[in-house]
Amino acid sequence: MASNKKYWQSVEELNENSSIVETLRNNEFVEQIPTDEFLGDKEALASSSTSRRDFLKYVGFSTAAASLAACEGPVIKSIPYVIQPEEIVPGVADYYATTMNDGFDFANIVIKTREGRPIKVENNVLAGAKIAANARVHASVLSLYDSMRLKEPLISGKPASWEDVDAKVKDGLSKAAAGAGSVVVLTGTTASPSTDKLIAEFGTKYPGFKHVVYDAVSSSEALDAFQAVYGERALADYDFGKADVILSVGADFLGDWQGGGFDTGYSAGRIPKQGKMSKHIQIEANMSLAGSNADKRIPLTVTEQKYALVTIYNVITGASVSVPKFANAAYGEAVMAAAKQVKAAGARGVVVSGLDDVNAQLLVLAINNTLQSQAFNPGAARLTRKGDAKAVAQLVSDMKAGKVHALIMSGVNPVYTLPNSTDFAEGLKKVKLSVSFSLKEDETASLTTVAAAAPHYLEAWGDVSVAKGYYGIMQPTIRPLFKTKQFQDALLAWAGNGLAYYDYLRAVAATSANGKSWTQLVHDGVHVSEVLPAASASAADYSGAASKLAAAKPAAGLELVLYTKVGMGDGQQANNPWLQEFPDPITRVSWDNYATVSKFDAEKLDLENYNVANGGLNGSYVTIEVNGKKLENVPVIIQPGQARGTVGLALGYGRKAAMKKEMIVGVNAYTLYNNLNSFQSAKLTKTAGDHEFACVQLQKTLMGRGDIIKETVLKDFNTKDASEWNIMPVVSLDHKEVPAASVDLWESFDRTTGHHFNLSIDLNACTGCGACVIACHAENNVPVVGKSEIRRSRDMHWLRIDRYYSSEETFAGDVTRKEGASGLFDSVSTFNAMEDPSENPQVAFQPVMCQHCNHAPCETVCPVAATSHGRQGQNQMAYNRCVGTRYCANNCPYKVRRFNWFLYNKNSEFDYHMNDDLGRMVLNPDVNVRSRGVMEKCSFCIQGTQAVILKAKREGRVVAKGEFHNAAACSAACSSGAMVFGDVNEKEDPIVALKEDERAYHLLSQIGTQPNVFYHVKVRNT
Prior knowledge:
This protein folds into five domains: 1-67, no CATH class; 154-218 and 387-512, Rossmann fold (3-Layer(aba) Sandwich); 236-382, Dimethylsulfoxide Reductase, domain 2 (3-Layer(aba) Sandwich), CATH 3.40.228.10; 555-695, Barwin-like endoglucanases; 711-1020, Alpha-Beta Plaits (2-Layer Sandwich), CATH 3.30.70. The chain is an alpha/beta fold. Helix 8 packs parallel to helix 18 (487-494). The model is unreliable at 55-78 (pLDDT under 50). A hairpin with a 2-residue loop joins strand 4 and strand 5 (158-159). It is globular. Residues 757-787, 841-872, 873-902 form the 4Fe-4S ferredoxin-type domain. This is 4Fe-4S dicluster domain-containing protein.
């Protein structure tokens, strides 16, 4: 029955004659909204502070008001594709093969683009790809979007057109051709057949023309030695996968030695198979990446390294050159033992050296020829280093004498990198026409007549031959962002050649890649032709070289050893925030270079490192003096493993020109790089003050915690049961010891249906290079937070590589010492002593990211269910749910979660790539950019796994075997094979066998988290 009750809201409604009630009934808005006046006035709209919430409140979500706003509001024009390029599908990535070549780094790579924007570097996995991407190559995509790049050419510091540049240069060159002076082209190592041919043709019309090749970090002595023996200015190539015994004397072959790229072969031999693995012995002064991976490391001064090389030469060749005694007799015995092991290995042994001494390099060639080493390959000689130190010195002399009329430079910055840069700058004033092709108005370009804006390698065509028989193409992956011109195109124009460099390149490529079409060559990016055998080694005075080395005298003071960091290299990318924030694999310090000294020398000089209350690391300052030149206020790191009597200092820092102020860090060590030799005699003096470091790892040693880094020796691995060297933890259940994995507080569910992702990390293959760290940054839009925040332990790296030292000479010694402690006081004193690493420690690297636990502690404590578990094994984050309680971080035993303390995106307080529109072009649209107040962490690159699944679905097939391997950025970037990503529910996936391997273990498995990341026990061949 219907109700007849009358309801009312106001007393006024009871008055049937009220005009107010009638007005309100027929008009929703009592006052007229001035939408026409407000939205139609552009100035009023632009200056308004009205929020979206207020606007919607005013218009009341009225359809009429929305229509009015659409009609009267300001119009932003969007220009769609008239004809959409068929290779671009919105939301789908395109990949282009190319080659990285900046004169220091070379790599055959593939570039991932989205809607025409290069956003990530991948490795080219086709046969013939010679060198994989290191951390710097992965970061180079961000340098494309550097806001400090030259936007157009400059003449005398003022913007100019390319027509003006061409006219000025042609005028200067015509005067040179008429006899006004010589023309010199100064480049870095181009390793480019077409460019070298073009330069030679360009110089034919100029009397006295020279092409001088200058490498900021020189390999001139090694080049001289190889040329003396084989008649060609190149470097021998090495395949360490073919060696059973590797002996290195001062060569960081896992770093930048001879252009790098040796880690793939090296790691293949380091994984124990059928009970065998290679043995690596490293003799060096600085603790290097190669040294930290060695089975046996012998710390020696550079002088004693020369003695060691003569000793090795004597043992292997049968020579009897007299060698001075070593300061530490035990090290002398170790060198002799190492030499005998190499000799016993015969053709399966190899010796390499990084000493900047032609005599040392001659002995290396003699040793490997005597061994007939299979790892030594002079036939496919490397062309990645071509610099000639003597020719550079002569050029500076000629410039100062006024003999050079025109100097054209490309890819070099001698005003920054030359130790006698003031002489170069003085000579530059006497050169009538100077041109510098550069990405930036750097230290050199700012002093030249013409600063020619050069394109980034991702905007350019080119070819690269990193070694004889290997040919790669460089192709543009984006239209030039600015008014730039390639050095090669300019040379063609100035020579009066009407060809474009693209056409010139095609003609050269037809010869260099005979048998492969241009289209196929550009698609593959690489081509391998038959490698001719090297010329027979000519006779050289090896005995005389050995005698000269043996006569080397120790430095009067300390021996300074200059080197390049894995992250910074020669400094070309010093304005790249990814590389500045990249923690050094050894010291774990970012945003700095520093002098590394041994604890012994630090105590003599009263130098110290200490941690402050917030965990930050502080250190002393020193002044380094070399031949009267002083480098002041150099911070000090006391480095375990640094040879007594030596000091290490990284090149590539201290740049100031064309740099954001945040990136102007460190000291310029090139000023001490006399005669382009990495070894100098130096004096250190302590100066006042303490330096604040940004160091991401406070602990110094493993302190016997064998459940984190599990390791054994090859003998035990071969002779003992896995239960003895891969000990699985036990817990008490009903007063009985049972395997920890058999006890669980959680109720599990069936995970055998669908995909289930796991990541395998082999501690034997991981070299700690950090390429995976930068790849993760690029793929997942990880922000850069800067030195101040890093110092507060607020780094945002989703993936870290922990570095551990041993307290004793070996990790096994740590365990013995720990187990030998008895009683409270003895244990306390033992563990206090173990906090200091050994003077010559063993080192272990362990990549750690979110372990994607099947029984995740973080999920249990999240009050808003922001973190949860997916069916495919990924621990997922819903950022818009997260309220930043950080309970999950507190409950995570692996400490892999990162809290956004600030908004790093579009924030002038963090003036890195995310703060400008150009830098933001590198962002991956498949991954959201997080805001402040949320937790973030590794996602197992869920966007990558979904892309693989959707591709297979679209093609109507199942996912292919191993197709998930490159879905995760870290595994795709890992050239050593240490990281393997896959689906454990796919029986043929390689991850299945890796998980069942007897070396496999989970990190902290005793707590029952059941991670989807597992590790392989490290085996040492001692």
